[in-house]
Amino acid sequence: MADDVAAADGTQGGGRDGLRVVLGVTGGIAAYKACELLRRFTEAGHTVRVVPTASALHFVGAPTWSALSGQPVSTEVWDDVHEVPHVRIGQQADLVVVAPATADVLAKAAHGLADDLLTNTLLTARCPVVFAPAMHTEMWEHPATRENVATLRRRGAVVIEPAVGRLTGADSGKGRLPDPGEIYELCLRVGERGTADRDLAGRHVVVSAGGTREPLDPVRFLGNRSSGKQGYALARTAAARGARVTLLSANAALPDPAGVDVVHVTTAMELRDAVRQAAGTADAVVMAAAVADFRPAAYATGKIKKQEGKEPEPVALVRNPDILAELAADRARPGQLIVGFAAETDDVLANGRAKLRRKGCDLLVVNEVGENKTFGAEESEAVVLAADGSETPVPYGRKENLADTVWDLVANRLG
C-alpha cells in the first residue's frame, strides 16, 4: 500500500518553522520502517499527522502511531466527521509522504480513487507529494504499476525508485524501501522548495562523488580527503527535483540516497569507464568526485615491506586521464551539459577561470579547500563559473544549498 508524508524545512534549513507533514502508511511489511521516518520528522520540529490504511494497522497498531506523533490516528473518513478530516488534512498539509507505498495505493492515487482517509487526503492535497514504493520486484516491474508511476510523476508527484536488496522471505531484488534516513533527506529537499514543480522531471543526470583511490599494493593506495558529501547532496537534490539520477560513488562511506541508481567504483580508470557508460543517455553530467591526477606506474602484487637500513624505493607515478576534459570535448549527445568541480588552495578564482577554459565544460564550481576546509564538512561556499563569463557566488551554508544552485543553473540552460 502507501504512506503519505508532508515534509518540512524546519530546524535543518533555518528561516521557517517546522512544516505540517502527513505521513501515509500502507499495508506492507516495510510499514515498521515508517516509525523511524516519523521519529526523524518529529525530532526536527515538524508536526506529523499519521494516516494509516486499515491494512497498515495489521503491521503497526494505531497506539504506536499516536504515541510517536502526538496526534490522533484514524483510517476512516467517518471518524470525527464534524471536522471534515477527509478534506482538512490534505488542505492543511505542507508535504505528504507515502512510505511505504504499495502497488495498491499507487494504483488508487493514479486513478483518483478515494475509499479511505489516506486516499481522500491524496486527492485534496495541493502540496508536494512523495511516494516511497515498497513491493516485490515482479509487482514493481508490472506494466500496470509502471504506467501508474508514470501517471503520478507526470502530474507532479515525486515517486522514489525503490532500493535493491532483501525483500520479504528469501527473495531479493528491486522493490525494497529505501533507507528511512535517506527518504527523510529527500523529503526535506522537496519540503524546503515548497513546490510540486519538478524542473528536472524527464531528465537523466549523472553525478560523480567521493574520491578515487589508486592502489600501490594490496594494502596501500594513493587517495584524497573527499568525503563524497557534496556529490551525494547533488544526487539527492536532483532526485527531489524529479530527475532520474545515476550516482557514481568513489569510496564514499555514505548510505545510498533514496531514489538514486548508485554505481560503486574505486579507481580513476573505473570511474572513467562508468561515466562513459552512464553519460550516453544523460542530459547533464556533474563531476563532483575528486579524481586522482596520478596513479602508481606499477602495482606490487605483494605488500611492500620495509627493509632494515634501507630507504624505500621512490614511487613512480603516471598521469590519469582527464575525465572532465574528455567529457566536454566528446559529448555523448547534443546539448549535453558538463559541470566540473575545482578544489583550489590559493588564487582560487584565477585558477578556476583558467581551469574552466582548459577543461571546456559549461559550469565549474570553484571552492577553496584545505585540511579544515570543505572536505568532510556539512557546509561549504563556492563560486560557480560559467563558460559564458557569468559568475554565481554561493554563500557559506549547507551543501544542499550549493547543490540547488548548481541545478538551478543546469535547469535554466536545459530549459
UniProtKB/TrEMBL annotation:
Residues 200-412 form the DNA/pantothenate metabolism flavoprotein C-terminal domain. PANTHER family: HOMO-OLIGOMERIC FLAVIN CONTAINING CYS DECARBOXYLASE FAMILY, PHOSPHOPANTOTHENOYLCYSTEINE DECARBOXYLASE. Binds 1 FMN per subunit. Pfam families: DFP (PF04127), Flavoprotein (PF02441). Catalyzes two steps in the biosynthesis of coenzyme A. In the first step cysteine is conjugated to 4'-phosphopantothenate to form 4-phosphopantothenoylcysteine, in the latter compound is decarboxylated to form 4'-phosphopantotheine. Catalyzes two sequential steps in the biosynthesis of coenzyme A. In the first step cysteine is conjugated to 4'-phosphopantothenate to form 4-phosphopantothenoylcysteine. In the second step the latter compound is decarboxylated to form 4'-phosphopantotheine. The keyword tRNA processing does not apply. Its EC number is 4.1.1.36, 6.3.2.5. This is Coenzyme A biosynthesis bifunctional protein CoaBC. NCBIfam families: coaBC_dfp. The gene is coaBC. Residues 205-415 are annotated as: Phosphopantothenate--cysteine ligase. GO terms for cellular component: phosphopantothenoylcysteine decarboxylase complex. Residues 1-204 are annotated as: Phosphopantothenoylcysteine decarboxylase. GO terms for biological process: coenzyme A biosynthetic process; pantothenate catabolic process. It catalyses: N-[(R)-4-phosphopantothenoyl]-L-cysteine + H(+) = (R)-4'-phosphopantetheine + CO2; (R)-4'-phosphopantothenate + L-cysteine + CTP = N-[(R)-4-phosphopantothenoyl]-L-cysteine + CMP + diphosphate + H(+). It comes from the Bacteria. Residues 20-184 form the Flavoprotein domain. GO terms for molecular function: FMN binding; metal ion binding; phosphopantothenate--cysteine ligase activity; phosphopantothenoylcysteine decarboxylase activity. In the N-terminal section; belongs to the HFCD (homo-oligomeric flavin containing Cys decarboxylase) superfamily. InterPro entries: CoaB-like_sf (IPR035929), CoaBC (IPR005252), DNA/pantothenate-metab_flavo_C (IPR007085), Flavin_trans-like (IPR036551), Flavoprotein (IPR003382). HAMAP family: CoaBC. CTP binds at residues 293, 303, 321-324, 341, 355, 359. Pathway: Cofactor biosynthesis; coenzyme A biosynthesis; CoA from (R)-pantothenate: step 3/5; Cofactor biosynthesis; coenzyme A biosynthesis; CoA from (R)-pantothenate: step 2/5. Its cofactor is Mg(2+); FMN. Keywords: Decarboxylase, Flavoprotein, FMN, Ligase, Lyase, Magnesium, Metal-binding, Multifunctional enzyme.
